[in-house]
Protein: Type III pantothenate kinase
Amino acid sequence: MILDLDIGNTLSKWRLKDADSSEIRSRGAVWTREQWKPGADIPDLDVVEAVRISSVARAAVLEQTVSLLHRSVPQVHVARSTPEALGVVNGYVEPHRLGVDRWMGVLAGYQLAGGCCAVDCGSAITVDFVLPGGRHLGGYILPGLRLMKESLKLGTRNVAIDPDSEAEELLLPGTRTVEAVNHGIYLAAVSAVNRIYSEVCDREGVALPMLLTGGDARVVARGVQSPHAVWPDMVYGGLEACFPLTAAERNGRMSGAPRVPAPAGLEKIRAGLAFSMLL
Ligand SMILES: Nc1ncnc2c1ncn2[C@@H]1O[C@H](COP(=O)(O)OP(=O)(O)OP(=O)(O)O)[C@@H](O)[C@H]1O
Ligand SMILES: CC(C)(CO)[C@@H](O)C(=O)NCCC(=O)O
Ligand SMILES: [K+]
Structure:
């Protein structure tokens, strides 16, 4: 079995992948601030022959996790943000400072769709761009839905946005505090993603496919106007592309990769942008 680990600021997500069949056998998540200890919701390490890790947590968390894993797993691969990988040139002035989760998302997106816009809706919302030739432009970081809500301190932090609500409903004026907050932050997030996407496509003169991942991807995607695909395993896809271990991975296949719809035409994107600037 292969253990893939995505250690975020809040949640550490894992999945177990069968090295022979490429099937995903199980998944889970644990709080990043809590230590990995047997008994918690963590996978059985006895069956694991290799681990691949993307971590944006404090260095100490990664060190502890790696040393714990090394006791029972022969192969431990830790992803890093590099100046260049798999045909993509990192756009950061200091490439190693780009969050490795963003780098994994960009590499997976590029491998799947070529030039693209990669959006991660987690504790933070990040929007990254890579052009068809492989030049990563850098991106945008804004607070995620939960962080925005917590920062308001209106006693609404425990009432999450229902991920099944319709976007239309979430865009109406709220008539209670919790609704006003949920609709406000939702509008902030989707407006930002829509605007950022159109601005960058307009500026670069190219309509890019859009991919979304992260805990809030589904609900944010419902407010995104441009054609897009949600790919919950996008960060894992980057790990598969960087450290291919199975036959399928060596052939460039990434688990759970969605069909990516063609983007809207550049003229349509530009018209939408011009319209939103009139408002
Ligand atoms: N039990 C939960 N705990 C925390 N967040 C949750 C939970 N369930 C859903 N969420 C939503 O998922 C989002 C976090 O998504 P995700 O798991 O992608 O975070 P993350 O990418 O791990 O963030 P980070 O990488 O910074 O830890 C939160 O903004 C929140 O709205
Ligand atoms: C932005 C987050 C928190 C998103 O998980 C992560 O990618 C990170 O810690 N990045 C480092 C800062 C940067 O990417 O510029
Ligand atoms: K993340």
Q: What stands out?
A: The longest helix spans residues 177-204. The pocket of pantothenoic acid (ligand 2) is lined by residues 8-9, 56, 97-99, 101-102, 122, 124, 126, 141 (CB under 6 Å). Residues 213 and 232 are 5 Å apart (CA to CA).
